[in-house]
User: Fold these one by one.
Assistant:
Number 1:
Amino acid sequence: MLRHYFSKMKGTAGSPPAVSFTEILWSWIGAFLGIAAVAYINFNRLADTDLVMIIGSFGASAVLIYGAIKSPLAQPRNLLGGHVFSAIIGVACYQLLNEHMWIASSAAVATAIAVMHATKTLHPPGGATALIAVIGSEKIHNLEFFYAVVPVGAGALIMLAVALLVNNLAENRRYPEFWI
C-alpha cells in the first residue's frame, strides 16, 4: 500500500516542451505592461490615499494571463471571479476570525478554493488574494469589503485589458480561449 502511494509521486509525463523566444518575449511584454499599469496607479496616483492598487497575487496572475494564456485558469472568468470571490471571502474571514489569525488564514484560503471550484472560477492567485485580506497591512484591513473593488476588481480589470491588447498582437497568440 505504501509503495503504491509513493509510486504516484513519480509523475506520469516528461518535461513540457521548451517555449519559443517569441513566446517568451510576448509574455514579458504583457507582464511588464500589465504590472506597470497597476503599479503606476498605485505609486503615482494613490500614494497619498488609503487605497492601494497592487497586491502580490497580481504577480501570479501575470504569469497565467501573459505566460500561460491557453490555460483554463488564465481566462477572464477565472481571473476576475477568482480574485473578487476570494477577496470577499478573505475579508469576511478576517472580520470574523481575526482573534485567531491562523484559523482566519487557513479558512480564507480553503474557502476561496471551494468557492472558486463551485463557481468555475478557479484562479490560483485567488488563494493569495484571500490570504492577503487576512494577513495584509492595516491599509488593506481598513478597506474592508472595498478591498474586493479596489485593488482587487479594478486591478484585475486593468490587467485583463492589457492581456486582451497584448496577447492578440502576435499572429500565433489568441486570448481569451473563453469568456464564460
Number 2:
Amino acid sequence: MSDPRQTIHAGSQLRSLMKQGTVVAPGAFNALVACAVARAGFSACYISGGASANVAGYPDVGLITMSEITRTIREISDASGLPVIADADTGFGEVECAIRAVVEYERAGAAALHIEDQVFPKRCGHLDGKEIISAQAMADKISAMVKHRLSPDFVIIARTDARAIEGMEGTIRRANLYREAGADVIFPEGLSDSSEFKAFTQASPGHSLANMTEFGKTQHISAAEFGALGYSIVIFPLSLMRIAMNAVEEGLDCLKKQGSLESMLPKMQTRKDLYSLLGYTPGTQWNFPRSRG
C-alpha cells in the first residue's frame, strides 16, 4: 500500500461500504478533485481510464500506460483518503499483464480495479464498433487476477461490453461466467434503461456496478434508483471533468473577448478555499494528507 501506517485495506473499506448500501463514486481526474469529492462527503471515488487519457490529451483508445495510472492512483488515494476504484482497461495485455496490473494497482493503494472484455485497442464503452474477446479468455484473466492479488480484500470488478454485440443474453451469460471465475463485482457496460439494468441484476445475482455517464447509451438514472435496482456501486466517471472543462472554455472565451477575467471572479475558487481544501495554513508546516488528524 502507499502508506504503511494504514491498517485497514482499502478493499476492505469498499466491501464494508457495499454491505451498507449503494456506493456512489464520482470520477476524480486528479488529486485535487479527489479532495473535493471527499470534502463533499462521498465515501469513494473513481479513476476513469477515459478521463486519464483525456487530461493527457489522448482519446480513450488504450493509450495510457499502467505506470501512468498507478501514479494517479497513488496521488488520489493519498490526497483523499478514500477507497479508489480504478479503471484498468483490458488489463494492459494478456493474462500475464493482467496479473501485473492487479498487483501494481493494489500496491499503489487502490481498493478495486475493473478490466473489460474488449479487444485491444479498446473503445469507449458507449461508442459503436467495439469487439470483444472470448468469454473464456476473459474468465482466464479474472481467475489469474484473483489468484495473484496481494490480499483477498482487494476488489476485482469484471466489465463486459457484450450488450452491443451479443445482446442482454450474452451479457448475462458472460457475467455469470465471470462471477464463477472469481470476480467480486460485475460491470455491465452500455445498458440502455432501467428495465435492462433490472433484468441484469435479476439474472445475475451478486454485486454489480452501474456506469452513469452522460451523452452515452444509458438514460439518466439517479443513484437512488440504481440502488433500488440492486446495484452496489454507481460511478459517474466523466461528469466532473465535463463540468470543469465547460467552465475552462467559458473562462478562456471571457479572457479572449474582454482581456480580463474580473467578471469571472464570482465563479472562481478563492485562494482561501483552495488552501482549505489542501489542508494548508500559510506560515505553518503542512502535514502529509494521511497523517492529518
Number 3:
Amino acid sequence: MTTPQSTSAPPSSPRVGLFVTCLVDAMRPSVGFAALKLLRDAGCRVEVPEAQTCCGQPAFNSGDTADTAVLARRFIETFEGYDYVVGPSGSCVGMTRAHYPEALADDPAWAERARRLGERTYELMSFLVDVMHFTPGDVKLDASFTYHDSCSGLRELGVFAQPRTLLDKVSGLTLKPLEGNDVCCGFGGTFCVKYSSISNAVVTEKTAAIERSGAQLLLGGDLGCLMNMSGKLKRQGSKVRAFHAAEILAGMGKGPAIGEED
C-alpha cells in the first residue's frame, strides 16, 4: 500500500501512524485506504511509515519469542514518534498492546517503551469513536448486515459498541443480529493451519449462523476473520458478501467484496 505521507489537516491535529498490517497490505489494500480516508475525515494528520513490517504475531503464537522481540523493537522504533498508532485490526493491535511487554520481558527498558507505545495504539473503530468522537459523513447503503466480533478486538481491546455506533450512522443500513457473534470464526491465525479440521468445523457453524441472520452483508473489523468466513461462504455458494467495516464507512460498500477481487 503506497500513499501520500502528508495531509492538509492543521498542525495542531493529532499525528497518526497508520499500521496497515500484513493481510491488508498483501490481500485487501482497500481496507488500508478506507482507514486512511476515515482518519483524515476525522481530522488527523496521517502517515504510513514505509519501514513497518509484520507485528510478529505469527511468530509469537508459534512460541518464537526471540524473533517476536526483534519485530517488536522494529515496530516500536518505527511508530513511537507519533501521537497515536492506529490499525484496522483488533488482532494485530492486540498483539502490540497486550503481548509486546511479554515478548520483551527480559529487557525492562524495551518492555517499558512497548508499554508506553501500547497506551497510544488503537484499533481503528475504537480510535474513531473513543478518541476522535468521529461521526461519518453522508454515507448511504441500502442493505442489511450482520456483524462478527473478532476474539482479540472484543476480549483484549473491548471493541464492541464502537463499530455498531459508526455503522448506525450509515443511511439505509440495517443490522441483523448474529447468533454467536462473539464466538471464534475458526481462523485464529496459525490455528487454522495447525488444526485445519477443527477450524473448518468452527467456521461451518459460523457461516450457518450468518445465513440464518438473513443479512446481505457480513461485516467485521479483522481481515483474517473476514477472509476465513467469506471463503467458506463462497465455497458453500452463499450470496452473502463480506466487507471490512471501514470499507462501508468510507463509502466503498458497492465495490468488490472480500473474495471477489478476481
Number 4:
Amino acid sequence: MTPEDEKAWIREAHGQVKDLFKHNRALYWTDLIATALIAWASTVVFFLASLGSGTQILAAFIAAVAFYRGGTFMHEIIHMPRNELKGFKWAWNALIGVPLLLPWVMYRNHIEHHSRQHFGTPRDGEYYPLAAAPLSETILYMVKLPFLSLLALARFAILAPLSYAYQPLRQWVLSHASAYASNPYYVKRFPEKELPQLSKVEWICFAWVMMWVAITLLGPVTWFHWLLAWGLHSLTLALNWIRNLAAHSYSNRGQAMTHLAQLEDSVNLVGQTWLTVWLFPVGLRYHALHHLFPGLPYHNLGEAHRRLMTHFGDVSPYANANHGNYFTVVADLLRSASQTSKNDSAILAWRAEHQSQ
C-alpha cells in the first residue's frame, strides 16, 4: 500500500468512528471509584484473614485484579487532553497511583510509543523485540517480575530524596528511573516542563512510604505486613507484565514503522474468554485499534471495533490485527523466539543504540 493509499484508508476508517472520541465523564468516575472500593476492601480482607486461608488467597486475587484494572486508567489519562478530567487525574493518583507508587506523570513517555519515529525501535520504551531474540530474553523478562515492586519502592523511598541532595544522582534518576518502560535499554531525560509535577508527586510518594515506616516502628503494622504488601503489589504488576506479552508481535528489528505497520504489529483479542475479561480490562483487548486511533476512550472501543469490521470485512489491514486469544499470540512469540539464534538477535540493535547514547 502506497503512502497515499495508507492515508486514504486511515481517513476512511476515521470516518466510521469520528463520533466516538468523547469521554464519558460519569462512566470514568463511576468505574474508578467502584474499582478502587473493591480493591481496597479486598486488601483489608487480605491483611486480616488467616495466613494461607482460602479467604486470604481469594482476597489477594480480587485485590490484585481490581488494582490492576484501576491502574490501567493511567493509560487513559495519558491520552486525554491536558485540561480534560483534571480532577479525575488527581483522584486516580490519590486512590491508585500514589499508594501503589505508580504516579501517572511517569508514564508521559508512552506518547512516544505511538510515534512513527519511535514505535518498534530501540527508542521506544514499551517495545522489546522478544519474538526476534532468543528465548532466553523472554525468560529474563519474566524473571524480573519479583523485583518490579522493590524497584518502585527504592525509586521513591531512597533515590528520590537522595537525588535532591546530590545533583549527579538527580540527573541519573531523571534519565534512567523516571519512565515506565519494558525496554531495559530505554534512556531518556524526563521532560523539563513536567518536572514541577514530578517533584510534587515524588514527595507525596515519599511521605506515603515514611508514614508506613513510622506506623511499623510505633504501631500495629509489622515487617511481615510489608512482605504481604510486596506479594500483593507484585501480583498486581505481574498481571500487566504478563498481559504485555500479547500487546504486539514484538518481531520488528528496529526500523521505523508506518501507521498501518504499527496497527498490524499490534494485537486485538477478539475471543471472549475469562482471561480476556480480567487480563485485558479498560479496553486493552483492542490494542491494535488503540494504535490506529489513540484518542478513542476505552468505553467506545468495542463499538468502534464492530463498525470497522462491518465496514471493512475480514480482509483488511484492520482485520489482520485480530487474534483469537492470548495463548495463540504468546505461542507465536515463543515459537519465533525459539527459532532465533543469539547472533541473529534483534536485541543487538537495542544494545548498540544504548551504547551510542
